[in-house]
Design a protein that fits this description.
It is built from five helices and no strands. It is mostly helical and 144 residues long.
Length: 144
């Protein structure tokens, strides 16, 4: 077995633990079934390995995975082969990035975006109260 590369689990390290914690904090900040579950993990009431056994989260991930499968299937065969060959290196790089990410800043940004998305848009002008208008005194050329 000369020349074979030994594959190690990038999550089985200090960086992997930090990356896992970062992912849970980011998920908790996004809401939805996965976010609710991740909030429980961050609070210490659940364990990350329970994630895919949680029905609502599993359903959410299955739907998302179907979308990714369609995207990947639509790629040319050469691109799919290249992505498959680079997958492990990409995973290791992403674990490193997650481990060193300023998660507090990213969570604050996500919470800010969430607050903006939840705020109802301000009406462009106040609604009219037509009941008090005296229509008989208006000229037909006067704007309503």
């Amino acid at each position: 077995m000369t020349g074979e590369r030994t594959i190690h689990d990038p999550f089985d390290s200090a960086d992997g633990d930090r990356a896992r914690q970062t992912v849970m904090r980011l998920l908790a900040a996004t809401g939805g079934a996965a976010g609710d579950f991740a909030g429980e993990v961050v609070a210490g009431r659940r364990q990350p390995y329970e994630l895919l056994a949680h029905g609502p989260v599993l359903d959410e991930f299955v739907q998302e995975a179907r979308g990714w499968w369609q995207v990947i299937d639509a790629l040319p065969a050469e691109d799919r082969r290249r992505l498959a060959a680079e997958a492990w290196t990409s995973l290791e790089r992403q674990v490193g990035e997650l481990a060193t990410m300023d998660v507090d800043a990213v969570v604050a940004e996500l919470e800010g975006l969430s607050a903006v998305a939840q705020d109802p848009p301000a009406p462009s002008r106040p609604p009219r109260d037509d009941e008090d208008d005296d229509w008989s005194e208006r000229s037909y050329l006067e704007p309503l």
